[in-house]
Design a protein that fits this description.
Radius of gyration: 13 Å
Shape: globular
Strand order of the largest sheet: 2-10-9-4-5-6
Largest sheet: 6 strands, mixed
Distance between the termini: 40 Å
Oligomer: single chain
Length: 112
Amino acid sequence: QVQLVESGGGSVQPGGSLRLSCAASGLSLPYYAMGWFRQAPGKEREAVSCIASADDYTTYAGSVKGRFTIARDDAKNTVYLQMTSLEYEDSGVYYCTQWEIWGQGTQDTVST
């Protein structure tokens, strides 16, 4: 069964950090571009960051550039999203995707 499972979400104060993980089963991540999306309450799902398969080229939404880092560990078949200097607006459910397959999401809450 092909599956993506996110973990690492939680509650953090503004300025804090979190690292999200996306573990894949049933597919070999090195062959795929991967992405992180997020959805805040009442808002549409938006792309946060992507990493290419061939050269690990990365892209970021303007709102997170310089604060978030996407990376992959092919040996662990896992993609990460390191989030620093978190802001209230970063709260939401974060999803990992291979564009055809989506994880169930992990909740991040930035609050005092």
